[in-house]
Every structure is written in C-alpha cells, then in structure tokens.
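Newbie here. two chains, one complex. Structure please?
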Amino acid sequence: MRRSQWLDPLPRGTDLPVLLPAAAGLARSAASERITGFPMLRLRAAHGVALLVLFAVGCGIAEAQGQLSQPSILTTIWKWTPLLLRGFLFNLAISFLAMALGTVAGLFLGFAQISLFQPVKKTAWLTTHFFRNAPWLVLLFYCMFLLPFQITVFGVTIPLPDWIKATFGLSLPVMANVSEILRGAVQSIPTTQWESAASLAFTRRQTMWMIILPQCIKRMLPPWMNLYAILTMATVLVSIVGVSEMMTLTRQALSAENRPGLLLAFYSYVLFWFFIYCYPISRWTVRMEAKYAVNL
Amino acid sequence: MDSFWDWFRWLHDATGINLTIFYDKFDRGRFASGFLTTVRISAICIVLSVAIGILGAWLQGSRLRITRNVVHWYIQFFRNTPPLVQLYFFYFGIGSLLRSADGAGSAVPLVSNVTWAIISLSFFAGAFNVEIFRSGVEAVPKTTIEAAESLGFSRLRTYLFIVLPLAFRISLPALNNNLVNLVKTTTLAYAIAVPEMLYVSSQIWSDELNVPVMMNVLLICYFVLVGSLVYVMHRWERAIRVPGFGA
C-alpha cells in the first residue's frame, strides 16, 4: 500500500482523467473505512425529529389499542423511565469501560504492528485481523462462557460478574480497531517527515514520539470517536447474553405491562435515548474531521 | 472415512479435546447445517443487498421528487439505527402483525424467522449499498452517457451497459467493506433463533458441555469464513480495478 493512499487516492498523474470527483471521494472513504472498520456515523437533527414522530405514532397506536380505564401511554412510559434510565447508564458504563480497555490494549497492539521486528509485527497483524474478522457477538459469547465467574490472584478472590465479562468481550473488537486506526494514522504521515527527522539526527524513538505521534493524534481522534459511538450502540448486544441493560429492561417492562401496542412506543423511546447520547458525539466527530483535514 | 471420524473420538479419550462435531453423527449434521445456513443467509443477503443497492441508486436518479425522498429516508433509517433493533422491529414488530390461524386455532407466523433475518439484513446492508452505488454512478461523467445516447442506447440500456459496469468497478472497494460487515452481522440472527452457526454451536455446547472447544471452533470458523471472503474480494478488486485510478 502506498503511504499517502489515505489522503490522496487519486494521483495527479492518472491516465484515466474521465472519472468525476465522486470517484475520488468514494475511494477515499473506502480506504479510510478499511482502516477504521466502520462507516462514519453521521447523525442529523432530522433523525431525532423522525424518531419523535415515530414515538408519537407509537403512542397513538398504543392509545387506540388500549382500553379507556387504562392509564395513558405517556404515564406508563414515565413510570418506567427511572428504571430504563438506570439501564441506560449501565450501557454507558459498559461502553466507557470497554472503550478504555480496548484503547489501551489497542494502542499496544498498534505499536506492535508498526514494529520493525518482524515476528512482533506479524503476530500483531494476525491478532488484529483475527479480532477484526470475528463477529462481535461471537467474541461476546467467547468471553461470557470462557472467563471464570471469579479469579483468585495471590489469595485474593475477585468476582467477575456478567457485565464485566461482557465488557471484556466488547473491548476485544475495539482493541483490534484501535490498533488498525493507529497503524493507519502512522502510515498516513508522509515518508518525507521520517526522512527530514532522520536528517536532523532524530532516533527512531524520538521521531515517533516527537514528530509522528503528535500529528497522528489529530487524525486518530475522529475515527476513535466514531468507534465509540458505534460501540455505544453495540452495547445493546449484551442483552442477548443476559446482562440486564436497557434493552433487557425494556423487554421486561413490556411483558410486565402486558398490553398490546406498546412495542413501537417503547422501542422508539429507547432509540431516542441512544440518539440523544450519540448525536453530539457524531456532530463533534464531523466537525473535528473537517478541522483536522489538513494535507501534509 | 469412519476411521477418520473415529480419530476424533480417540483425540477426546487421549487429550480431552471433545470435538463432538466430528465423531458424533448427530452433532456433525447439526453443525454442518448451521454452517451452511450461515453461508446461505450470507450469500442471499449479499445478492439481495446488491440488488437493492443498484435499484436504489437508480431510483435516486429519478426525476420524481417523491421517489428520491423515499429512498433518502430508507437510507437514513437503516444507516443510523443498530441492526439488532432493525431485526427486532421486523421480527417482533411487523412479524407479529402478519399471523394467520392454523387449523387448531393458534396463530402461526406467515413469514419464518430465517426469512425475516434475510429481509432485515438485506435492507440493512442495502442502505449502505445504495449510497455506495450512487457515488459510483455519480462518478461516471455526463459526456460518457451522452456518447452512449448518440450511439442509440436507451436510458435503461445506457444504465445497464455503460454506467453500471463503470460504477461497479469504482464502487467495489467500498462495497467489499460493507459486504464483509454484512457477513459478520449475520450472527445477530441468533437473537431471533435462526439456526445459524452461532445458534447451533450454543445448542451443541449446552448438550455436550464442551464450551471452550466449541467456542474455539466457532471463532476459527468465522475467521476462516470472513477471511476467505476478504481474500477473494480483494483479489477481485485488484483484478477489475480501473487502471490508473486509486493506488
């Protein structure tokens, strides 16, 4: 792969000048997606409005199907909101922890991927791609079933509740993606930077820490934040393995109410909470991406 | 062949690695059918989502504003909501409405869970494909289309024989990313009890209590499945790359 591919996929000297700029845009997004692993999430205010409309329709359906004696749908949702929000905070806690663990591990793996020592580099490459190619749900199951429910270190027994195991499970794919984001960012820095650093007698370590990495951080932030938003949305997966987060609680609330037509109202309500949380992150990511899009 | 399968029985006795999916005939059948279900769902979803992508990109170029708006909102919905929520929406939301009574008077779903998984995942990946193909179509210059017109091509034939082949070659890298994601997302069908690889594996490990072994088998199977898709698609991508375009 050419070094500057991430930034400049259409070389100026192309022998096929007939394709319009959309082709270059597509190639650029495909190349960056191949590194970050996910398409950029671009939430807009209109999506929130659409969710509210969906919620209103859901409420309408529920009112129409319910009996007059029953409390109104909004009262019902309000009644369940504290419980659902506790579940939502749990989702956020899982996402924070998984992101933190995944980022730390991913940075180590990413540095191993750009090592000059071939065995380290190859192993890190294989690890990264192994965890990138495995579906999230399979990794989640892997950690849920294979980690013990408690570990004993130096005589101290540390319990590992379900949600901690699920967090480990989610941090594995995050680790692989962060590793690839780091490698991609380092590769996107033009070779000339390395060469000028070498000509100024910087060692490899100095070049890395003082010249390359400070430039990489700006490039890594937008895909990293995008990964976080996607991870937050993926935390609902842990409901499948039986951790009681927002999705599980919603299902329980629905069966407790045992009333037809609540489905759409409740699920669009859940979606709306996720939207409120992810929308600022997504906007900020887009802004930052535009701000840091400097050609070197 | 039997001695080959029996070797795994010996392996179990000797090392404790309990690969029932090889020496036990019933488990072998279950796992094979799960693997094939995953492959089948992936293949059907890939074909359908590409078809949706092509159709959507064509409709987005329509002169009618309403058609363009419908496609726009379709993309927005499926791009910005988690696929698990979409799956639940289709299976529990719409699926519960589409029921008919059987002879005994109980409700039977008209559409099976496998079909819902295929529909939901195809729409999910299709939304991304529409955008990918649209960018690909946009990249084809108007002069090329005018040249086709001057050669007597109709609008449909221009699209089929001139625009689409060019657009496809431009879109392939982005398309590959999306299709790889799609194959990984098929595991979500577990949530609505579709008997795919993850689901049958969980059945096997609850019956045979060989959780660690099955987990590793599963992880390796997915790695091989997705890895070979990535490999084949990248080879294809390089083979039909527009010369001089990209790096």
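Moderator note: The domain at 76-186+217-261+269-292 of chain A is CATH 1.10.3720.10 (MetI-like fold). The longest strand of chain A covers residues 150-153. Thread marked as resolved.
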